[in-house]
User: Fold this.
Amino acid sequence: MTSSSKVDTEVDSGADSWVAKLGPGLITGAADDDPSGIATYSQAGSQFGFNMLWTVLLTYPLMVAIQVVSARIGRVSGHGLASNLRRHYPRWLLYGVVVLLLTANTINIAADLTAMGAAVNLLVGGPTRAYTVALGLFSLALQVFMPYRRYVRVLKWLTLALFAYVGVIFAVRIPWAEVAVRTILPHVSWSGGYITTVVAVFGTTISPYLFFWQASQEVEELHAKKGQQALTQMPSQGPANLSRIRMDTIIGMAFSNLVAYFIILTTAVTLHAHHVTDIQSSSQAASALKPIAGQFAFLLFGLGIIGTGLLALPVLAGSAAYAMAGTFRWKNSLALEPQMAKRFYGIIVLATVVGLALDFTSIDPIKALFWSAVINGVTSVPIMVLMMLMASNRKIMGTFVTPAPLRLLGWLSTGVMAAAVIAMFVFI
Assistant:
């Protein structure tokens, strides 16, 4: 490791295997199921039972489409989303989007850290705030000091934490026939509470920080591997890389949505069935499970909160840093030593520290999380519109403009999110 780079020179065995090819898409999908997302899915299942399971079937193809678009932009152009926005669109639009992203991410970091500290307290007792600070500083140290290739492997291993929510189903009895029917033919309510929860599920599943992270990680992967160039400069590398992106994203988003499905299912079959319908946080969901589903389910749920939080924190802080760096042309890479990219790492530190500080104020974390979701929802629509325009712009994509099927699905995803945002303002 040189003084200017954190790239790990260790070579993975079996690098040509399909598992080794999983990276940005897998990590992005798994990071979507962060503690605040777990709280949203838990509320959906506890309040409306099996009648919220259908949302996951709809979000999956839409999420795949928009994340593939973001990854393609990064890999084809060799630049992240903020850099492409700066190069091709008005500055006022870029600044507005980045400020909203930074605000929403910081609030989300605060909410996730609070949930993680509370989860440790539930499992072992002790000072919740001390755990919150320790986990925040631990995550920050990994991002700043660990070599990039090794750090990516750590994030890949952390995705296994999500299996905790699959494992919970073995601790409870599931009426699978009813589940199958309600997944396909739910009892849809047109009440304000039901619509708001649907919007919350969409908002926590399709979020701007995921777009910025996956595009930037494709750029990181491009620089980390010898002989790789932006596809506009080396079109011959296109078929293999676009195929990898497609597989990586399909698997990563499947992982994300499968876990969301099982969280809704678990809370539906336990909490909803026992009339526990008001869940405000992921740690509250874990606590409520204990007397109903037993110690095993409680432990799995609690451990999952901690693991997914450690996975989500770097994605939230990192995506904010990539956005700011792209906006102001700062050096930016997790493969660089901190002294070589001071402002980039400074944003990572600032977002994490401010998130920690919010946990020591009188701000209600539940209300803060709600407004974070509102900001994410509002911000996602113009960003998705701009992404779809970028993906069809030959100045950015060269010969790799988005093919018609992906373009159709991407615009459909954008339209659904726009409808969700409109519904949110109608029903909140």
Remarks:
- Residues 317 and 352 are 7 Å apart (CA to CA).
- The mean pLDDT is 86.
- The chain has 19 helices and no strands.
- The first helix runs from residue 18 to 21.
